[in-house]
Amino acid sequence: MLVHIPNVLTAEQVAHCRRILEAAAWVDGRVTAGEQSGKAKNNLQVPENSPQASELGDIILQALGLNPMFTSAALPLRVFPPLFNRYDVGMTFHAHVDNAIRFVPGANMRIRTDVSSTLFLTDPEDYDGGELVIEDTYGTQRVKLPAGHMVLYPATSLHKVEPVTRGSRWSSFFWTQSMIKEDSRRRLLFEMDQSIMKIRADLPDSHPGVLGMTAAYHNLLRQWVEM
Ligand SMILES: O=C(O)CCC(=O)C(=O)O
Ligand SMILES: [Fe+2]
């Protein structure tokens, strides 16, 4: 399941991120890649421990904490500190699957990567190519979103970034360890939660249908949750 989360960052926050990133020391993106994905990868990244990555990462983590759709779709246990990448003309990331486990820099901790995210920091009209292409259970999806918007997809999916042919594509990317490991269960809980929200827009919370569906959601979550 792919989830498009609009307006994770405001236009001002995107502009701030871009200003800070202008001054960052971009390095070869292979620094964080595994063996297979390293061969597939040709882009630039801001170093994990740089002051720019941690300042901007905190802004993104705070925005995610306030975003009900992210919480509902990812059911996050731990979020990897956001990283930042860039594809100039000719750069690309061929098909790969993200590493299953990642060390969190500076935290002496590992996370299991259940959900992958790309938060776009360049508007689509400012570059050509650079689509994120994801092999989903429902077929191949090509994703290119406005700056400030984000896509979530299962870290189990094969994905690639098409070569950029004009301009430069900047984004933040990171992984989430979910309280629900399995994609199909996470999707079912997300769909159920979204439906409950729609019902609650029309019916009082005390309505027996709302009460029953909310109870079923929480009881299902309780059965499946891993913490
Ligand atoms: O740039 C992107 O949108 C995705 C990056 C990616 O797939 C990765 O770093 O593993
Ligand atoms: Fe990836």
TrEMBL record:
GO terms for molecular function: 2-oxoglutarate-dependent dioxygenase activity; iron ion binding; L-ascorbic acid binding. GO terms for biological process: DNA damage response; intracellular iron ion homeostasis. This is Fe2+-dependent dioxygenase. Keywords: Dioxygenase, Iron, Metal-binding, Oxidoreductase, Vitamin C. Residues 78-178 form the Fe2OG dioxygenase domain. Its cofactor is L-ascorbate; Fe(2+). SUPFAM superfamilies: Clavaminate synthase-like (SSF51197). 2-oxoglutarate binds at residue 169. The lineage of its organism: Bacteria, Pseudomonadati, Pseudomonadota, Alphaproteobacteria, Acetobacterales. Fe cation binds at residues 96, 98, 159. Binds 1 Fe(2+) ion per subunit. It holds the Pfam family PKHD_C. PROSITE patterns: FE2OG_OXY. InterPro entries: Oxoglu/Fe-dep_dioxygenase_dom, PKHD_C, PKHD_hydroxylase, Pro_4_hyd_alph, Pro_4_hyd_alph_FE2OG_OXY.
